[in-house]
Amino acid sequence: MPDELLTVPEVMTRLKVGRTKVYDLIRTRRLSSIKVDGCRRIPSSALGAFIAGQMERAA
After folding, report:
1. Whose CB has fewer CB within 10 Å in the chain, the N or C terminal residue?
2. Distance from first CA to last CA of the chain, Å, rounded?
3. 3-class SS of residue 58
């Protein structure tokens, strides 16, 4: 089954951060994303990988 593509507001809700922070994570390539006709989308696996990476750093 392919990844679910999340919108920036959905990622904001899941990470409990603001829009600027999400775009900062994308800009610094800490969170992978794609553009679909000019709309930014984040694969759910990329969000999962980001969270797992943060958990590893915290341990």
Report:
1. N
2. 31
3. helix
| pTM of the full structure | 0.90
Residue pLDDT tens, the chain, 59 long = 578 999 999 999 999 999 999 999 999 999 999 999 999 999 999 999 999 999 999 88
The residue among 40, 37, 29 whose CA lies nearest residue 6 is 40
Q: Which amino acid is at 43?
A: P
Closest listed residue to residue 33, CA positions, set 22, 19, 17, 20: 22
Token duo for residue 35: 């553009």
Q: Which backbone phi and psi does 14 adopt, to 5 degrees?
A: -70, -35
Token duo for residue 38 = 């000019």
